[in-house]
Amino acid sequence: MKKYLLLFITLISYSFGFAQEKLIKDIDLDGIKDTVYIDVKGFIVCQLSTQKFKKIKSKVIEIMNDNSRISGTKNGFEFRNNWMRAGYANQFRYNKALKKVQLIGMSRYEFGNAANDGSGESSVNLLNGDYLGNWNYFSVAKNKLIKIPTIKAKMVFAKIYLEDFGEETYFNFSDRCTKLYEQGKAKTQKVKG
């Protein structure tokens, strides 16, 4: 019996580890406070007053940890998911014309390996497609970390709304960043050796 009680307490404690305070903020700009939170099943949930507080859910985010957070921003909210040596953030804002919560920006960072090869950060503004990447690579020949000049490019995504958002959104962004990083690294290696 004690084992079951201990197991029950452990499971409850674990679920509270993923629980967090809800963000209470007027997201849909009608003067009434709305609610955004991450539920225990790994969904970002938004309840808007203009939609009678009906739950709007993202796709499930399976790679979630106790560092995953929702926080308020000037015009909306941000979902942040951090791991040990990498992480990402996604910015959402209410689109009044479409009456939907829209993903408007993404950013990511990586510390790279032990030599910091592949370390840096990047972001994309989904409203205009502007991408900025600040990355580094480790030169074995020079035995030092080399900064790649800031990568500026256009990175266009179809409009993404909260109910369409999932891990594949981030991984798509990450894959595109990696291609730009590899191109920037190759150009820098030609110039700097």
Question: What does the model show?
Answer:
With 193 residues, the chain is α+β, with helices and mostly antiparallel strands. 22% of the residues lie in helices and 37% in strands. The chain contains 2 helices and 12 strands, in the order H-E-E-E-E-E-E-E-E-E-E-E-E-H. It has helices spanning 2-18, 167-192; strands spanning 23-25, 34-38, 44-47, 55-57, 69-72, 76-82, 86-95, 100-110, 120-125, 130-139, 144-147, 151-154. Strands 5, 6, 7, 8, 9, 10, 11 and 12 form an 8-stranded antiparallel sheet that branches. Strands 1-2-3-4 form a 4-stranded antiparallel sheet, with no helix packed on it. The protein starts with a helix and ends with a helix. Residues 4-8 and 10-19 have low confidence and may be disordered.
